[in-house]
Amino acid sequence: MRRIVHILAVLSVAPVTVTFGAVPASAAVTVMVDSSPTNPDAPVAGSVVAAVKSRDPGKLAVRTLTGVNPLTFGQDFTGPTGAGPNTGLSSPVWFNDPCWKRGCTGTLAEYRLDHAQLDGQGHLVLTADRAVTPGARCGPVACRYASARLSMLDWEGGEGLSSWAQAGGHLEARMRAPLGKGLWPAFWTVGANSAEVRWPASGEIDVMEALGDHPTLVEQHAHNGMPDDGFAGSPTPPAERHAHDWAPDIDFGGSTTLPAGQTIAGWHTYAVDWDAGANGYLKWSVDGVVTRTLTAAQAGPAWAQSFRDPHAMILDLAVGGGEWVGEPDAGTVFPARLEVDWVRAYRNPMADSVGRHCG
Q1: How do strand 2-8 and strand 28-34 relate by DSSP bridges?
Q2: What is the annotated signal peptide range for this record (predicted)?
Q3: What domains are there in the chain, each with its CATH number?
Q4: Pairing relationship of beta strands 169-176 and 289-295 according to DSSP bridges
Q5: CA–CA dist 196, 54 (Å, integer)
Q6: Cα-flanking dihedrals φ and ψ of residue 330, to 5°?
């Protein structure tokens, strides 16, 4: 069940309590901003503002930003069953990322656009199954599964050009993920300049990734380092590698444990707030609760190299991935589904306005 609450646009750092009638604790509450005829500087109509449900039944404490925070990308995946991921958009944003050459860090899945479709109920579904194209290769081995990896970088037809990218802001996706060993769902970003500056030197922000056999854990990371010769199938010549003074590697982050009784199989909103300034930060959150922070000072020289330039978003459901992920076992059920309710990006971070406790 989902309840949508509309409020009049306001500008305030103080919480505004909205009474809307009893709502079951399991309901997902989305707070939308209505236009304000008297306040032209209020958040744009339709914006989702940070909200924390109070302990009083039927009340919601809403905290808006002190200023306009426009939505720069938003997709709620409305469309008929079987439609593709770009349905409803004025131009394609999501592209298949085939991730050839080394099979995407050891995954065993062939990535195809036909494995990312709308379910007709407002969700995008990335499906992993065994319907592999005959002869498909995942790096040095034959692919054993087919799945979807959607990127805002067009590697198949656009030489890695980005359809959408942004430096800083608030990025979020509401998703529920499949369980099972060897399944590796993720919502993440890479530098939009990845065609010129190879990963991981271009930077990576893992807003959410998870291992299907660890259902209570959410992985949140930031990566940077020497360029990888196998990224996107475009090797970096050795001469080019040594022509740059790359910053030291960053492998920041770790696991966040979900509240008692919750797993990645339930609906959760995964987000990162990113201030891309010289003294900026990354703040990860789950369901509005900030879970970890990386500052520019902590990142050192790598911050300027990898986290001040625009990034593009990626959604994928990988299968297998070296020792960390492992391979599916007899208990892993196929087809497996990663369901996405929405993806949104805002121009400015919201972390300072997000409540740290959801009652």
Answers
A1: parallel
A2: 1-27
A3: 2-68 (no CATH), 72-353 (2.60.120.200)
A4: unpaired
A5: 48
A6: -65, -20
DSSP state of 323: H
Q: Are strands 169-176 and 183-191 parallel, antiparallel or unpaired?
A: unpaired
Is 78 in contact with 88 (CB distance < 8 Å)?
yes
The SS3 of residue 184 is strand
Q: Classify burial at 59, counting beta carbons within 10 Å of its beta carbon; exposed 0-12, middle 13-18, buried 19 or more.
A: middle
Integer Cα distance of 214 and 157 in angstroms: 36
Q: Distance between CA atoms of 271 and 282, rounded to whole angstroms?
A: 10
Please list the alpha-helical segments (H only) found in the chain: 103-106, 238-241, 296-299, 301-306, 322-325
189/48: higher pLDDT:
189
Q: Given strand 217-224, what is the order of strands in its sheet?
A: 95-96, 149-151, 311-319, 183-191, 204-209, 217-224, 250-257
198 vs 291, residue with greater confidence: 291
DSSP-assigned states of every residue in 287-313: TTEEEEEEEHHHHTHHHHHHSSS-EEE
CA distance 170 to 179: 27
Query: Between 114 and 64, where is the model more confident?
Result: 114
Contact 116, 333 (CB under 8 A): no
C-alpha radius of gyration, the chain, whole number = 20
The candidate with the shortest Cα–Cα distance to 232, out of 200, 188, 187, 186, is 200
Residue range 123-150, pLDDT digits in tens: 999 999 999 999 998 888 899 999 999 9
CB 291 within 8 A of CB 257: no
Intra-chain end-to-end CA distance of the chain, in Å: 18
